[in-house]
Amino acid sequence: MQYRFCPQCGAPLEVMPLSGRERHACIQPECGFVHWNNPLPVLAAVVEYEGKLLLARNAAWPEQMFALVTGFLERDETPELGVARELKEETNLDTEAVSLIGVYEFMRKNELIIAYHVKASGNIALSEELAEYKLVAPENMRIWSAGTGFAVADWLQARGYPVRFFDRRTGEDIPDPRQPSDFSVLSGSLQYRV
Ligand SMILES: [Zn+2]
Q1: Of 94, 96, 99, 41, nearest in space to 70 by CA
Q2: For the structural domain made of 40-172, what CATH number should be given?
Q3: What value does the mean pLDDT take over residues 99-107?
Q4: Which positions fall inside the Nudix hydrolase domain (predicted)?
Q5: Distance from residue 31's CA to the centre of ligand 1 (Å)
Q6: CA geometry: angle 43, 49, 55, nearest 5 deg
Q7: Centroid of ligand 1 to alpha carbon of 147 (angstroms)
Q8: Residues near 79 by Cβ (< 8 Å), separated by ≥ 6?
Q9: Is pLDDT above 90 for 151?
Q10: Distance, CA 19 to ligand 1 centroid (Å)?
Q11: Domain boundaries, the chain
Q12: pLDDT at position 58 over 80
């Protein structure tokens, strides 16, 4: 999301350095609006249903492209309830237990993925948003190498299942793309006062 004008006072925004980065900020000093553009949290569910993992295809996606159930958190909602609500809305499944898998970057969309393992029961009925679903045995999972895929990888790995990544465009297996964070990038960009 980018703004050209201040959503508070309507004045133009200007790029200026603030807190170590270039930001779009209001030119009116008495207004003080800054578009921080921080990542938006997204909930994702690794849904375990009858011993299998549920993947769903969004109606707008190409065939063969399946993913986790995801959604945005509502105001005044805990993430645990939010992920259970999304699952109910999109698949009609009831949540029995929720546990955090981890938090993952999704810089491509300026989002932060909060991934949960959700044990679910009930009868599947898809919302209009979803075109189809499939249930995959954990030992047969092949993982896409992006945001929510890394949550699936961590979930499988913690349970001793094989972790196999594939390229979504070619369909071919690829090496594990996960990299440890390189914290040395911080040393050149931050200036500390001592
Ligand atoms: Zn303003």
Answers
A1: 41
A2: 3.90.79.10
A3: 97
A4: 37-158
A5: 5
A6: 55
A7: 34
A8: 41, 43, 73, 114, 116
A9: yes
A10: 18
A11: 1-37, 40-172
A12: yes
Q: Give me 127's structure tokens.
A: 């919302």
Asked if the domains at 1-37 and 40-172 fall in one CATH topology, the answer is: no
Q: How far apart are CA 82 and CA 104, in angstroms?
A: 17
**Residues having C-beta closer than 5 Å to ion ligand 1:** 6, 8-9, 11, 26, 28, 31, 33
Mean pLDDT, the chain, integer:
94
Distance 33 CA to ligand 1 centre (A): 5
The runs of H, that is alpha helices, within 92-175 are 147-158
CA of 4 to the centre of ligand 1 (A): 11
Structure tokens at 130: 């979803």
Of all residues in the chain, the percent with pLDDT exceeding 90 is: 84
* The pLDDT value given to residue 189: 60
Residue entry with tokens 């509502």:
74
CA of 25 to the centre of ligand 1 (A): 8
State the distance from the centre of ligand 1 to the C-alpha of 40, rounded, in angstroms: 22
Q: What is the pTM of this model?
A: 0.90
Calpha distance 5→10 (Å, rounded): 5
CATH class of 1-37: mainly beta
Number of H helices, E strands in the chain: 3, 12
Contact 76, 21 (CB under 8 A): no
